[in-house]
Amino acid sequence: MMLIEPHRFTPYEAGRTTSVTLPGQHRSTHVDVLRISPGLVLAHSHFSSAQRHSGDIRRPEDQVILTFNFSGRMLLVDPRGHAHEISGGQAWLIRSGGMQLKRIVEKGEGCSNLVIALNASRLSPALANMLGHNLPGPMRVRRLNLPVPGRAMLTALLDQRTDPAAILRKEGQCLALLGHALEEVAAHPQQGSETRNPCLLVERISALLCERLAEPITMTEIEHEFGLSSVTLNQLFRTRTRETVFEHLRRLRIEAAERLIRQTDRSFTEIAADCGFSDASHLSNVFRKRFGTTASAWRRAGKQNQ
């Protein structure tokens, strides 16, 4: 497995740029790297869709990474085996603490990201303390709600200019993006912290689903609520419940309906509405598939056994 250490091919001098082609990779796979200042680096990565990319990446212990996805999909797998999907125009803040992350880009997908790497030693003591408190080491990966930089900013950051005025301008742009990221972390210090406790995360999502049994709910809403991708959420659920999130939701709905059918005299239309089924006919069809009998027969049997 190839180990990539980006700091080893980052230009040493501020204002210098380089384009790095990784060994054994397709020719269209490369990383454009700009050293903005001694502790601040900007990189634009391009992974070809022509082949699968898999390797380990390790950054210096004190680096904080802000990543914006432009296109495609990349998986980052941390040492605990948790997969974080970088895709869909998302922003992520990563503090690896010098630990290795596995990077995977599947064939046919490709990926392009903007990466800003800042040495935490450049931060003021107050910011460094806040970062350490809200992103405790040694490994922390957090999805943000920041928008991807617009076309104008992206063009300005990647315009290849390396004169002192341009470098000063790019430093300000990168620090502004990092500032927005740190503001979000400071404003919502606990968001995403349950990923350190997958069981708690599954419990929280299950509780949300129970609250929303009667209402439509989308995977996008759940992603936004918990700050994790559908891939990661379904992976956590399969590991702990052997179900996807929506398989779990369907089970919760039919189990709630079964209790109401068995324990009450409410109409099937009312029960269907309360448990998230479109109508009594939908409930009846699902009930028959699950229990092998009609809801009416189940209710009669329940009363006979009382």
UniProtKB/TrEMBL annotation:
<feature type="domain" description="HTH araC/xylS-type">
    <location>
        <begin position="203"/>
        <end position="301"/>
    </location>
</feature>
<dbReference type="InterPro" id="IPR018060">
    <property type="entry name" value="HTH_AraC"/>
</dbReference>
<keyword id="KW-0238">DNA-binding</keyword>
<protein>
    <submittedName>
        <fullName>Transcriptional regulator, AraC family</fullName>
    </submittedName>
</protein>
<keyword id="KW-0804">Transcription</keyword>
<dbReference type="InterPro" id="IPR018062">
    <property type="entry name" value="HTH_AraC-typ_CS"/>
</dbReference>
<dbReference type="Pfam" id="PF12833">
    <property type="entry name" value="HTH_18"/>
</dbReference>
<keyword id="KW-0805">Transcription regulation</keyword>
<dbReference type="InterPro" id="IPR050204">
    <property type="entry name" value="AraC_XylS_family_regulators"/>
</dbReference>
<dbReference type="InterPro" id="IPR009057">
    <property type="entry name" value="Homeodomain-like_sf"/>
</dbReference>
<dbReference type="GO" id="GO:0003700">
    <property type="term" value="F:DNA-binding transcription factor activity"/>
</dbReference>
<dbReference type="GO" id="GO:0043565">
    <property type="term" value="F:sequence-specific DNA binding"/>
</dbReference>
